[in-house]
Amino acid sequence: MSNSAKIRTLKSLVGSINFEGRSFLSVNDLTDDQIYGLFDLALQLEPWNRSMIPLATGNVMSTLFFQPSTRTRMSFETAMHRLGGAVISEANPLVTSSAAKEESLSDMLKVVSKYANIIVMRHFDDVEARKAAPFSESPVINGGWGHWEHPTQALLDLYTLYRTYGHIDGLKVCVASADLIEARTGHSMAQGLARLGARVFLASPKAKRIPQEVMDKISARGIKVEEAFDLDQDSFNDLVSDMDMVYLPGCSAPKGPEAEAFKVVMDKYFVRYETLEKVAKDENRTIYVTHTLPRRSGEMDLRIDNSPSQLYFEAIAYSVSIRMALVAAILGV
Ligand code: CP
User: Is the pTM of this model over 0.90?
Assistant: First the structure.
């Protein structure tokens, strides 16, 4: 196929997703068809994962990250460069932008949207971010807001799962964390998985179960997810051995005097390499493990890195294609 024919195919896929000009704040902002449309587009864009296809030439993306990030900011910026667009970035806006002079977030978004065609923002306060987003004159993408949602992380992890199995429906996935209250990626992923027909198991301490708001949104669609509370490491690994994938969304670990106690709880959600190895040997199947990263020392068995179960570094490559697809769909290029 010639390059111009390929670009016509891509533009037609962009059109069929029908998401031009829209903000992406929650995983629920996309219909199931739009999610699968983005998967199709991302698949077509994978050949340009390490080069460039000029779909977004002349467009500018602004990345405003009020919290630290390696993956989300850099993969969005990479995606925009791979689409031929330009990027203006604030990686530490509380120090280097007029936010340091107490400019409101709504004013900042209004101003930046006069420069940028699309804004990707990470913010520590989801309430403030949600209030300010409508002041932007350009579409806004949630790059992780407070303890609410991180929908593009879920989108890339769903895409990775889709690329691994060819489908999501019917898969058994355990979302596990020592704190599912604060795990914003876990909130987005649990909803995305459930909507796309996966059987979802949520493992956490009962005191740190996933917020009721997330459960309500899932049950409003007539879907049930299962919760397993206060497991010890043995019973957690029994649950793991029945899964197709274990999803470790991580969460912000407390510092100071609570840190040691938290580590004890975190250890209960340690996926044993031996569990994965036994299932591979006895049942001839792979249990995949993904972690949204960054991970803490001791949080994972590093032998998984070099095993067939490892999906977390695979997801990094897929993140560029799916974010290219999302940006292209929003820009309507
Ligand atoms: N997974 C994730 O959001 O990573 P960063 O914090 O590095 O963006």
Answer: yes
